[in-house]
Amino acid sequence: ADAPGDDYVISAPEGMKAKPKGDKPGALQKTVPFPHSKHATVECAQCHHTLEADGGAVKKCTTSGCHDSLEFRDKANAKDIKLVENAYHTQCIDCHKALKKDKKPTGPTACGKCHTTN
């Protein structure tokens, strides 16, 4: 299957409102642009763990039964991988931190460096 272009944006999934940003009324967390071309050396299944060997369509995280909780992360559920927010954060940030530790080129790990668009 072909990957989306570099204009792909990770945003709140259908059925979930964008996360409020801090304590500012009406302010929402910005979305995350995801450049697939910068991840071309990463095996697809490293992120898309439900990818079939036949290269079929990638299932959406929230509809595949893996990360279908649309609640916001808080102290009570901070590690619950069922939360789609945790799935993205764990996958992206942990990979970027590991690359950084190995002194390899990587993407950002700070909130404002990823959440840049609306």
From TrEMBL:
Heme c 4 binds at H49, C61, C66, H67. The keyword Nucleotidyltransferase does not apply. Heme c 3 binds at H39, C92, C95, H96, C114. Its cofactor is heme c. Heme c 1 binds at residues 8, 36, 39, 44, 47-49, 60-61, 66-67, 88, 92, 95-96, 111, 115. One of its GO terms (molecular function) is electron transfer activity. Heme c 2 binds at Q29, H89, C111, C114, H115. Binds 4 heme c groups covalently per monomer. Keywords: Electron transport, Heme, Iron, Metal-binding, Transport. CDD domains: Cytochrom_C3. The keyword Metal-binding applies. Residues 14-115 form the Class III cytochrome C domain. Residues 1-27 are annotated as: Disordered. This is Cytochrome c3.
